[in-house]
């Protein structure tokens, strides 16, 4: 099926009363069923995810000029107080490691210095929290796609799971390959010209500017490539989705 006829079909599907069922069938056909497709909100999650992926494809998040950078960006929540984190902080994160594992040909581990030595991208985007507030900042980081290409993603892979340091309130999330290979999805170590502050997830955070703020996991240490999210947590694709949030949080 061509892209246009696919688009027509899904648009027609959305316009009918049987739209949800039609869209669900299409979503399955195109491998666009999100991990949180069960329960009362499941059909809505599938509809949102499949429709956005089919209709907007690889669209870009808006980028801003320097003049739009927020004067006082809001750090949401306190940095971890776990010893595992504070010990590394006291050492200026010299021993911080990012591991890349799972369905890759070449698993790898990177220090911050090594990441800083890789090709980087600078972008000014907005971080929008689901609670309604937002700020604009400049981030510098390595495109996640670059790290994944170095690792060699195996053909059966479907998702990239990423998580924070293993502390008490560890957060983890995941994105599909479309989002992980997207040019604006960055592993960031710098914000507004300096090191990424711990209040904003320093020393390392993933920025996923096409989705809501909670997908931008702070204190990042792991990247795991997988073909299924079923065995992880409650199987809904993220710590947020295991709670009350949507796995797909496209803006
Ligand atoms: N590890 C970790 N990452 C996290 C969070 C968190 O509590 N822990 N909060 C998320 C939420 S809900 C939002 S809105 C953004 C906030 O980013 P900020 O602190 O830079 O404003 O980080 C996200 N990433
Ligand atoms: Mo948030």
Q: Enumerate how many helices there are, as a single number.
A: 8
Counting structural domains, the number is 2
- The beta-strand count equals 10
Radius of gyration: 18 Å
CATH superfamily of the largest domain: Oxidoreductase, molybdopterin-binding domain
- Name the beta content range: 15-25%
Strand order of the largest sheet: 2-1-10-5-6
What small ligands are held by the chains?
ligand MTE, molybdenum atom
Give a brief rundown of this model:
With 251 residues, the chain is of the alpha+beta class. The chain has helices at 3-15, 19-29, 42-56, 83-90, 112-116, 144-151, 177-180, 239-242; strands at 97-102, 108-111, 121-128, 134-143, 159-164, 172-176, 186-191, 194-195, 205-207, 220-226. The strands form two sheets. Strands 2-1-10-5-6 form a five-stranded mixed beta sheet.
Describe it:
The chain is α+β, with helices and mostly antiparallel strands. It folds into two domains: 60 residues; 179 residues, Oxidoreductase, molybdopterin-binding domain (Sulfite Oxidase, Chain A, domain 2, Alpha-Beta Complex). 27% of the residues lie in helices and 23% in strands. It contains eight helices and ten strands. The strands form two sheets. Strands 2-1-10-5-6 form a five-stranded mixed beta sheet. The longest helix is centred in the N-terminal third of the chain and has 15 residues. It is globular. The chain starts with a helix and ends in a 9-residue tail after the last helix. The mean pLDDT is 93. The structure holds ligand MTE and molybdenum atom. The site of molybdenum atom has 6 residues, from loops.
């Amino acid at each position: 099926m061509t892209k246009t006829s696919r688009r027509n079909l899904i648009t027609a599907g959305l316009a009918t009363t049987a739209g949800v069922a039609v869209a669900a069938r299409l979503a399955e056909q195109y491998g666009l069923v999100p991990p949180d497709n069960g329960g009362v909100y499941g059909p809505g999650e599938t509809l949102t995810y499949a429709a956005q992926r089919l209709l907007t494809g690889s669209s870009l998040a808006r980028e801003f000029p320097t003049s739009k950078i927020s004067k006082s960006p809001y750090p949401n929540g306190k940095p971890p107080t776990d010893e595992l984190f504070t010990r590394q902080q006291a050492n200026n994160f010299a021993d911080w490691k990012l591991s890349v594992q799972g369905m890759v040909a070449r698993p790898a581990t990177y220090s911050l210095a090594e990441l800083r030595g890789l090709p980087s991208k600078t972008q000014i985007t907005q971080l929008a929290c689901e609670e309604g507030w937002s700020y604009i900042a400049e981030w510098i980081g390595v495109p996640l796609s670059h790290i994944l290409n170095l690792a060699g993603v195996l053909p059966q892979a479907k998702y990239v799971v990423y998580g924070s340091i293993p502390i008490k309130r560890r957060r983890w999330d995941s994105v599909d390959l479309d989002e992980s290979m997207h040019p604006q999805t960055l592993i960031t170590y710098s914000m507004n010209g300096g090191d990424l502050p711990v209040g904003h997830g320093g020393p390392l955070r993933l920025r996923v500017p096409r989705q809501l703020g909670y997908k931008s996991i702070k204190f990042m240490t792991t990247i795991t490539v997988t073909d299924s999210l079923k065995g992880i947590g409650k199987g809904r694709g993220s710590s947020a989705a295991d709670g009350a949030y949507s796995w797909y949080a496209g803006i």
